[in-house]
Design brief:
Blueprint (H helix, E strand, L loop, with lengths): L14 E5 L5 H4 L1 H15 L2 E4 L14 H13 L5 E4 L15 H6 L3 E4 L4 H11 L4 E2 L15 H11 L6 E2 L5 E2 L17 E2 L4 E4 L2 E10 H7 L12 E5 L7 H13 L2 H4 L2 E5 L6 H15 L6 E5 L10 E2 L3 E5 L2 E4 L7
Parallel strand pairs: 1-2, 1-3, 3-4, 4-5, 10-11, 11-12, 12-13
Antiparallel strand pairs: 5-14, 6-16, 7-8, 9-13, 10-15, 15-16
């Protein structure tokens, strides 16, 4: 594979552009958005520039395709901006893939961060430019938490984007939350937490390779397109989408990956903690993953702090990673000094 392009690390005082490539949630939840910006700036000592169309609302997106594309392009072209961070995800980021200016992005390498539906853009940029992108917290989801963002989430983000050294092991948090709360008004307590299942080697084994991380649904959307990632020898990290997704949907989509040949190519599979699954549903999804990968004898690691529950690790696409039974390591830096 061509050499990775690693963006410069974020430093205190840098300016970060905020974009809304899909849903216009900031327009619907102004209190949450304001709280999130204040927390993000305070915690990391960063400045923000809200791009012109990021606060728009046009049906189920923040704006037209042209408006959302121009925000991303202008952010990458602006030499005063050090990184581009998604405010929120949604369901329609894939609308932008064919018209993203990948030459512009490659000529102006900087961080691009988001997860969930933003998986599509993360992988399109990585596939077309070899620029490391980041499956990472978003402004309204993680940095807008009441009363404060999760300390593990803060630490993993800082280690990945503000230090030019390997993150090392992603050690699991003892507790987590997936409590659903209203974003319509401020709250006076943090979301309820409960004990987290420890990381589990569903099928023990050791493997190393380039890290590919994202939401299962969006990986399925990328298959057969010019934006499909190179799965060869990859450590494939998957998470489940938000509302309305259960083990049955997971079964369908994992078999779609198998039928597309993905599990012929990857070196290991890592599953994030499913969102709003009870223990029985989680066990059912784990069994599905074992069944669908049985013929390939791949190492399978589960319950990792990644995805739509909190805390959430920041995972840079393309860097070397290692699965060692029930442990996950990021072996190289994702940024340059």
């Amino acid at each position: 594979m061509p050499d990775l392009i690693k963006p410069p690390m974020l430093r205190p005082g840098d300016t970060v552009a905020l974009v809304s490539p899909s849903w216009g949630a900031a327009a619907e939840h102004e209190i949450r958005f304001g709280h999130a910006i204040a927390a993000f700036q305070r915690i990391f000592d960063l400045n923000v520039k809200v791009m012109p169309h990021a606060l728009g609302l046009r049906g189920y997106t923040s704006g037209t395709r042209e408006q959302r594309l121009s925000d991303i392009h202008d952010a990458f072209a602006d030499p005063t901006i050090a990184a581009v961070v998604s405010i929120i995800a949604g369901r329609h980021s894939a609308q932008l893939l064919e018209d993203l200016d990948y030459d512009l992005i490659k000529a102006n390498p900087k961080m691009f961060c988001g997860y969930s539906d933003i998986t599509s853009i993360n992988h399109a940029i990585y596939a077309q430019t070899n620029l490391v992108t980041f499956s990472a917290p978003m402004i309204m989801t993680q940095w807008g938490e009441w009363t404060r963002p999760d300390p593990h989430t803060v630490d993993w983000f800082r280690r990945a984007v503000m230090r030019a050294e390997p993150v090392g092991e992603i050690v699991g948090s003892p507790t987590y939350t997936d409590e659903r709360v209203s974003w319509a008004r401020p709250r006076n307590r943090e979301r309820a937490r409960r004990p987290a299942r420890p990381y589990a080697a569903l099928r023990p084994g050791v493997a190393e390779g380039p890290l590919l991380a994202g939401t299962l649904t969006n990986f399925c959307e990328l298959l057969g397109t010019p934006f499909e990632p190179d799965f060869r020898d990859a450590i494939l990290v998957l998470d489940t989408p938000g509302h309305g997704f259960g083990p049955g949907e997971g079964d369908q989509q994992l078999w779609h990956l198998r039928n597309a040949g993905v599990f012929d190519d990857v070196a290991a599979v890592v599953l994030g903690r499913p969102y709003h699954f009870d223990d029985a549903q989680t066990d059912q999804l784990h069994q599905v993953l074992l069944d669908v990968t049985e013929d390939f004898r791949l190492p399978v690691l589960a319950n990792v702090d990644y995805g739509h529950t909190d805390p959430v690790a920041t995972l840079p696409l393309g860097i070397r990673a290692r699965v060692d039974d029930s442990r996950l390591f990021l072996l190289e830096s994702a940024v340059t000094a």
